[in-house]
Amino acid sequence: MRDQASGPRVLLKRLRELMQEPLEPQERLDRIVRDIASNMVAEVCSLYVLRADSVLELYATEGLNPNAVHLAQLRLGQGLVGTIAASARPLNLSNAQEHPAFAYLPETGEEIYNSFLGVPVLRAGRTLGVLVVQNKTMRHYRDDEVEALETTAMVIAEMIATGDLARLTRPGLELDLRRPVSFTGLSFNDGVGLGHVVLHEPRIVVTNLFNEDSEEEVRRLESSLGSLRLSIDDMLERRDVAFEGEHRQVLEAYRMFANDRGWVRRLEEAIRNGLTAEAAVEKVQSDMRARMLHMTDPYLRERMSDFDDLANRLLRQLMGRGPEDVAASLPKDAIIVARSMGAAELLDYPRDKLRGLVLEDGAATSHVVIVARAMGIPVAGQMKGAVSMAENGDAIIVDGEEGTIHLRPQSDLEAAYAEKVRFRARRQEVYRELRKKPSMTRDGVQVDLLMNAGLAVDLPQLAEAGAAGIGLFRTELQFMVASTFPRAEAQEKLYRDVLEAARGKPVTFRTIDIGGDKVLPYFKGAIQEENPALGWRAIRLTLDRPGLLRTQIRALLKASGGRELKLMLPMVTELGEIAQAREIIDREVRHLSRFAHHLPTSLKLGAMLEVPSLLFQLDELMKAVDFVSVGSNDLFQFVMAVDRGNTQLANRFDTLSAPFLRVLKLIADAGIRNHTPVTLCGELAGKPISAMALIGLGFRSISMSPASIGPVKAMLTELPLDELTEFFDDNLMAPAQGLPMRALLQAFADDRSIPL
User: Fold this and answer.
1) Please, what is the average pLDDT of the chain?
2) What is the domain count for the chain?
3) How far is CA 358 from CA 305, 410, 454, 481, in A?
4) Residue 636 is part of a domain; what is its CATH number?
5) pTM of this structure
6) Residue 328 lies in a domain
7) Between residues 736 and 208, the one the model is more confident about
């Protein structure tokens, strides 16, 4: 009996020889289909390639009319070939003409053939074409023949992906792999970036497809699978918070997939058919991805990214490559494309090469977006499908203003965006000219425009943006990007560098705000919570772990010697927490005094107003602290019962709605009444329209990302505050014509030519 695997192995060996011969693309294709037909004892073998206009064009054939090559065409979904391309699944028929999808193309002469086997040409789960064999006799092709054709299709996919067939494409037409694609999602940070794709979790490109020794390749696969399983088990044994909840569920899924015998058996079969272990992983994963893309079950579709990640991990094990290899070869105009990523991961990339960030998930208030905003790069989010459609090195445009991206853009679109970038540069020049002008409304009212920061990379922007100071220094970012708790000396150095960079301008340090969605992988004391945003985080955590807070306070006191120190407590819920924190601070002051340390000239203690309970003790709060900062992101989240990380709700509720503006008005009025300075730091401060609303409500100090200061100042200098105050008197409690406040504010600005 013939060894069923010998056929595919012989065919792959022949294909390898063909790939190495110096042939023209059409001649190579013609010989490939001839060899496939001969190997599979088929009377017909044809290759159809998918064009960018969703048409499948016959590119090569053995057995059909050769004059039909580059003329015979089928739309995606039309006929058997179109059905295979649309579904990304093979068709194995003993009598093709009885199938309801059969479509007769008279120019090909295929009516005399009955049996039909067609497989999709797949790469990374995307259909690039269809490969078909046919016979006159009615027969059902064996499973090993289906496998052989699928394996061959993978080789052809690489030919298409490398651009070998581009010379065969008629003028004015493009292959599907290179077609321009646009996505519309959400704007997470303004700006426009033109550059080239860098996939954050890049697909490993397998170039060595054919094996010399199947048994050796199976041993390599088993060894790498063993290492992969051990690494997953090791992560699951760690009990810290980074691997609890949803993270743990994903790892459990990885472990299940990594031990799945069906998956491993398919990998081994592909190797025994002649592929290397790497090529086997890519083939099996591409088949699986293509099938899962067409599943209707949302849970199974979501698991697709788990399969992708697992396959990538296995490929890295096999090829001995790590993520650091990608960073080393970064283009000078890199635009990172990711499903999701952490703030620390973004900081691993060199800032001078970053031009933008694209996320399939995320929200405007997620921490990676906050860090990207601090770095001044445009961010577009909720770009579902962008990762699978992008390839490393693809040209890409990120429009952070509109919340759109353009993959492989056409030249006229690229030229239009290049002009848009030049226009923005000219506008930035105008903003730079505003830096030294007083930060005043048109009728002479001073408003302090401060900046948010959190890392040393932010500090040069203090002078560049013309900020009046740092209204929020997020000390936890230093903890989030470290692999262990930063030592007291490292903290002290950072805080001293910040104060020196400020050159006498005020700096407000927020004490460490971890917990909730701010995960420290090395923090062993963290616990799993059903509602982490409402749980053990910020001041609650540091009062329970006073050693953390004491170390930070001591570092801040030492760094501030001879200067004013402004300290702010996050997520205060009741005044007793302020008293407890003040006691810890006083104790550290006494300790340092005892050892004659140089202390701050003054120490001001403030609280962040993020929890609605403080709205019912505003006067008591204002008397208990030296200043108050409104954390508008969390306050809005808690007032409106909206999880700020929930992508389904990201655009559902408006921060400029009348109820929330009334809450902010209460706070501003309480500050004025008690002579307590109030600053607002959060997303509201960074948009000209919402900054205008805040000023109209009574805020005279707002803190934002450095890039937002120019546009907000341009608005401020044209703002007639007396008219805006009158506008709120008339509309805040009863908006005119029942219109949304945002629409009314926009009309107010338009009528007075205020730039928003």
Assistant:
1) 84
2) 4
3) 16, 19, 22, 20
4) 3.20.20.60
5) 0.60
6) no
7) 736
